[in-house]
Specification:
Blueprint (H helix, E strand, L loop, with lengths): L11 E6 L3 E2 L1 H4 L5 E2 L2 H13 L2 E6 L9 H11 L2 E3 L1 E2 L10 H4 L2 H13 L11 E6 L7 H17 L3 E4 L6 H10 L7 E3 L8 H8 L4 E4 L10 H13 L6 E3 L19 H13 L3 H15 L5
Helix pairs in contact: 2-3, 5-6, 6-7, 9-10
Amino acid sequence: MNPSSQFDRRGYTYAHEHLHIDLSPFKQNIDCRLDCYALLVDEMKTLVNKGVLNLVEVTNRYMGRNPQFMLDLMQETGINILASTGYYQQDFYPPHVAQRSAQQLAQEMIDEIEHGIDGTTLRASVIAEIGSSEGTITPTEEKVFHAAALAHLATGKPISTHTSFSTMGLEQLQLLMRHGVSAERIVIGHCDLRDQLDTLLRITETGAFIQFDTIGKNDYYPDEKRVATLLALSQRGLLSQVMLSMDITRRSHLAANGGLGFSYLIDRFVPMLLQAGIPQQDIDHMLCTNPNTFFRGQE
């Protein structure tokens, strides 16, 4: 049995997070190597105590993924982690991505879903985070999206994407749908980094999900605007297609290192939503019902 498959439908879910990721070689910044096991144990235990029982870990291969790290965290803290397979974005691809076919790349994903990651018992439950560049989807990125679609069609696992600064989300959706993926099995990531209500309405009208998953990253886009957009979606009855998360990626994001920490979403952002007039039922949809629906079959 896949340890990451014990999806707990009773609890809240963070839909787009990282627990062990290393983008420091690319960004030339050691802060971008998140590997702080003891601090993460404390943060995960706190989340569980607050009712967050599931976390979707979207670090894929060549981003510093560490399956044993995730297995150990699950064992020690009781949180359920859904691991991911795939490739991130053009700037982070290893050379072989350009050389291999979509079918070959898809088979790599399928193997991690069906047989396990790096020789461990942890199998991938999500095809994520499949990314595109800012303002464009490069030909190689298109190939990876095709591979993700093939892996989905072979396994039924949902696809979670990365948009660079909230660009190309609609195009990602259309590309995946052209390759045969149903909109309801796609969630477009990072939809909360710019003003784009019209685009979000076009995405949700297809039946796809969207993520407001950079909550707390006010340097990029203020939480007050995230709340305002969520209120606009709530007034249109669309929060049944929205999921929430924080996309923590750096050592400095952890509470013990002076950052907001994983609990910020529950402790500070949810009260902002309530104060804005978004009902608790909608919040429960975004943090519980919607992930239950989207990640169905992961139990």
